[in-house]
Fold this protein.
Amino acid sequence: MDALVRELLNAFTFEGEFEGESRVNDGHINDTFVFHFRLPDGGERSYLVQKLNTYVFRQPEALMQNVLGVTAHLRKAVLARGGDPARECLCVYPAKDGKPYYIAADGGFWRCYNYITDAHSYQTIEDPAVFGRAAKAFGTFQELLADYPIDSLTETIPNFHNTVSRFADFIRAVEEDRVGRAAEVQAEIDFVRAREADCGVLVGMIDRGELPLRVTHNDTKLNNVMFDNTTDEGICVVDLDTVMPGLSLYDFGDSIRFGASTAAEDEPDLDKVRFSLPYFAAYVDGFLSTCGRSLTAKEIDCLAFSAKLMTLEVGMRFLGDYLNGDVYFKTAYPAHNLVRARTQLKLVAEMERAMPEMERTVADCRKALGLA
């Protein structure tokens, strides 16, 4: 790593004297580091330096153009609201050749961002109020991008949240059974197969023009929100690699499947995995309070269902990757993707039982906020 660090230090323009790097280990896809510097006045400054996984992101240049456009738009919006863009949005620092990325000698695709100081993220949440504040951050993210020209974005991962396509990918993984694992997970395979019709609901509504495409984050896990160390308010949405045209429902549903669970995404003890209606209610309130007035009635109607659908999608992606030999998601042990899949499928079953209460929660919040 020492030679690579030296190469990266020469590739980007950093302020101060380099003091070392530390690794960030909470992502499934990219390799992320924080470079630390001492400033001439004795202060400190850090930068986020990240290697993009180009196996997952096959159009890295187009991806970075998406990120550049969105971050520039967010910066202007934050400044217009009197905010601090150094802490409330990401900023791309170009390489010395002017490009928003650097291709290393070994072919690695690297980029550099501002490091959000005096802030933290959550892997799990133990307080529904925190979850509600995360909902406000993601809702605000959509609100600030409401006037962004959606046609200027490239769909860098085609069919990313197309659940019909995801189901077809899953069935292909089952049929190919590349590493001979299908027999041991037949119950999980049957569970996903039985919900094929669910996978076509939102896609069908898009095709019929019943749901609008918006600029969406498309990966709204709770660890993609940075919270202020003092106020614990969500101040910045990060990890913009999957910013593309999509549905507001994708963002909402993915947050619920991650944050309204009583256990970690890879909890092996399924008895600990339950769906929390209080957490769901907190998120609904926070999300609708910030972007609810820009949503259509049908979008709000589908909020509860979207939570179940996004959980099912991620579950079948984990299970499909397990069947394919763990080629997409990073794993810490051989059954890691299977553990993740079982956690998601347990949550799907929990949400199905709670669906009437979830729909009443949305209706109550909708009425309280005076939404259509």
Observations:
- The first strand starts at residue 17 and ends at 24.
- The chain has a mean pLDDT of 95.
- The chain is about 45% helix and 15% strand.
- The domain at 2-117 is CATH 3.30.200.20 (Phosphorylase Kinase; domain 1).
